[in-house]
Amino acid sequence: MTRTDRQRWLLPSHLVEPGGSGAPRPRRTVRDWIVDTSLFLLAAFVGLIAADTSAQYTSEAVTLVDQLLGAAGCCALWLRRRWPVGLAVALALLNVVAPVAAGALLASLFSVAVRRPFREVAAIGALAVAASTAQAFIRPDPTTNTGLSIALGFTLILLVTAWGMLVRSRRQLVEALRERARRAEAEAELRAAQAQRLAREAIAREMHDVLAHRLTLLSVHAGALEFRPDAPPEQVARAAGVIRDSAHEALQDLREIIGVLRAPGEGGEAGDRPQPTLATLDALIEESREAGADVHLDTTVGDPAAVPAATGRTVYRIAQEGLTNARKHAPGTTVTVTVRGRPGEGLTVDIHNPAPAGPVPHVPGSGQGLIGLTERAALAGGRMDHGPAPDGGFALHAWLPWPP
C-alpha cells in the first residue's frame, strides 16, 4: 500500500480529493464506503424500530406508506456527500409526516455538521427541531408525552449536530497540522539552501585568502629567477624550493576547498588537513621570512592554543592577507605584526608596513581580500579597519572578541 493509498484510507474524501468541502468527488474511498454503509444500516435500524412502533397504532396503509418513505429516506443517504444541505432539508420536511425517516434525518444532520459552516448547520438544525416539534403534534406517539417527545427530538438533534461539528473541528485541526508540517519542511529546506549558499561564499573567501598568499610567493620567487639569472646556485635552488613548496601547498589547499564545495553524492573526499589557528601564526611568519620578507612578530599571547579556534583562524587569515598585501604593494619593507589581548578583553591585530622606496606597479584585483576580511571579522563579532598610515605606509587594525 503506497503513501497516497494510506492517506485515502485514513482521511475523509473531502480532505483527500480535490474540490474541498461539499464539492463533487470523482470516487469514494474505502473508508467512505464503510462510513456510508454504516450510516445507512444505522438509519435503517432506527427506521425499523419507528415503523414497528407506528404499526401498532396506525392502519396497514399508513404503515406501508411510512415504510416506503423511510426506505426512500435511507436510500437517499447515499447522496449526502454530493448534496448534504438539500438532502437534510428534504428529510426534515419528510420527518414531519413520516417518523420512520428520523434515522435518515439524524444521519444527514451529521453530514451537514461535518461539511458545512456553522451558519448553515444552525439553520438546518433549527429546521430539524421545528420539523420534530411539528411531528409531535401531527403524528403523536400514544405511548409518550408530547413534551417528552419534543425534548427527546431536540436532544438527539443537538447531540448529533455537536458530534458532527466536533468531527469537523478535528479534521480541520489535522489538516492545519499537516499544512503546518509541509510549510515547516519547505522552510527548513529553504534555510538549509541559504546556509549552504552562505557556507560556499565563506569558502570562496577562504580560497582567496589562501591562494593569494601562496601565489604571491610563487610570483615573487619566479620574478627573482627571471631578473637574476646570474644568481648563485644556492639562491636559485632555494627559490626553486620555495616555488615547489608553495605550489604544493596551493594545490593541497585548492583540493581541500574543492572537496568541500562538492555537492553530496558527487564523490571525492574532503581534505583532512588541520585548519590554521593562532598557534600556527609563527609558521606563517617563518614562511614569509623564508620567502625573503622582513617580518617582525610582536605578541603577548602566552598560550595561543587557549584562543578559540574560530577567532585564532580569523587572526591567522588577517595576518596572511596583510603579509600578502605588503609583499605585493611594498616589497622590501619591514612588516610589523602585533598581536595583543587576553580573555574577556578580546584580541587586537595590527599590521603595519612603511611606504616602499620606489614605485610599485598596480596589481589587478587589489582590495578584494581586505573586503572579505572585513566581512569575516564582522561575522566573528569583531571589526577591522585599514588604510594609509601617517608615515605614508599602510596599516591594518582588527579587534576580535575573546570570551573570558
From TrEMBL:
The keyword Nucleus does not apply. Its EC number is 2.7.13.3. It catalyses: ATP + protein L-histidine = ADP + protein N-phospho-L-histidine. Residues 167-205 form a coiled coil. Keywords: ATP-binding, Coiled coil, Kinase, Membrane, Nucleotide-binding, Phosphoprotein, Transferase, Transmembrane, Transmembrane helix, Two-component regulatory system. This is histidine kinase. One of its GO terms (molecular function) is ATP binding. The chain crosses the membrane at residues 33-51, 87-114, 121-138, 150-167. Residues 200-265 form the Signal transduction histidine kinase subgroup 3 dimerisation and phosphoacceptor domain. GO terms for cellular component: membrane. The keyword Phosphoprotein applies.
